[in-house]
Amino acid sequence: MTDKTRVMILLSGRGSNFIALADDMAVNPHHQIIAVASDNPKATGLDYARKKNIPLLLLDYNAGRAAAEKTLQEFIAREQIYYILLAGFMKILSPDFARQFKNRILNIHPSLLPKYPGLDTHQRAIAAGDKEHGCSVHIVDETLDGGPLLAQRAVRVLPNDTAGSLADKVLALEHELYPFVLQNIESLIKQEHEQ
Ligand code: GRF
Question: What pTM does this model have?
């Protein structure tokens, strides 16, 4: 039987969302992080994985995306990973990869999607004069930051907010949102499909 508790994290940098997920699962082991993968061997997020003895998988994109994704696919099959959690992973997965793992790849994005897919979300929210900003967790499909939404958290944008202050506030919300989504993943996906 499929074990849906087996997850892996993909990151490229700081890894604070990975740390929030790992710390949550250390208290409440609703899922298990089987490995952390990165396209960037210098990602500081990998230090925490090393500290916690979580296996690492390095994805070499120098040989092209197809080769890197093949490594990842083989790992997922061998280790029977169910959910693939993108947490600051800066590579775009191929449409084929997204289709192969339909409803099994999640991503956290620092905006209230469908607003501001892509980069510089905090600056764009300020420039647009938004009164509210936040973060989203969504299912990854073939579109960039465009798959079905599972949950969001919002914060008010204050007149003196800068891109930096907003980023800090939104990041704190991200650290609550991603663990919440994973804790409730089966019911959130079911709800989304019923909509
Ligand atoms: C977060 O803002 C996340 O929403 C975005 O990339 C950033 C990653 O931060 N996708 P971290 O590496 O988890 O600290």
Answer: 0.97
